[in-house]
Design a protein that fits this description.
6 helices, alpha/beta, Rossmann fold, 5-stranded parallel beta sheet
Length: about 170
């Protein structure tokens, strides 16, 4: 069985992340999305809130699950029997940092391969940070995140002006 781990802070998950999930779910028998703690970031949503949102939006993929870790992702991958770490890339600016991370992971866990999967081009320009910025401005988020995420952003920001087209999906 081909098991992969796709880790990130996902604060919150964007359509770009979901396009990586969609592609990965076709490539691997089991995909474990891992919401990782990054001490350098101050997330808007708690670890549990992010896991709950992700579980909701990945429900259409029966081979995809979600959990969290405050430890090293490669250690969790070993525990889950994963031989692959999925890294989503949006464009050339992501690649240098992702290659450095892949090299480090290879040094620490040489039995686990890193696989780079690009987000669909139409979803590649919006990061979680940019999504939160757009939400604060009251922008229509339907092109950038699932309705569940947009409504949670609206709740958190008290921004009733955020609009999301019904039925929008990856």
């Amino acid at each position: 069985m081909r098991v992969a781990v796709y880790a990130g802070t996902f604060d919150p998950m964007t359509r770009g992340h979901l396009s990586v999930v969609e592609r990965s779910a076709r490539l691997f028998d089991r995909l474990v999305i891992v919401v990782a703690v990054n001490p350098a970031k101050q997330p808007m949503f708690s670890l549990n809130e992010r896991v709950t949102m992700i579980r909701h939006v990945v429900a259409p993929w029966p081979n995809v699950e979600c959990e969290s870790t405050s430890g090293y992702v490669f250690e969790l991958a070993r525990e889950r029997g994963a031989k692959y770490l999925v890294r989503g890339v949006r464009g050339c600016t992501d690649v240098a940092g992702e290659i450095a991370l892949a090299r480090m992971n290879h040094e620490l866990a040489p039995e686990i391969e890193t696989v780079f999967i690009p987000a669909h081009p139409e979803f590649s320009e919006v990061s979680s940070s940019r999504l939160k910025e757009l939400a604060r401005q009251g922008a229509d988020l339907s092109l950038f995140c699932p309705a569940e995420v947009a409504s949670r952003l609206a709740e958190r920001l008290g921004a009733g002006a955020i609009s999301v087209a019904e039925g929008a999906h990856v």
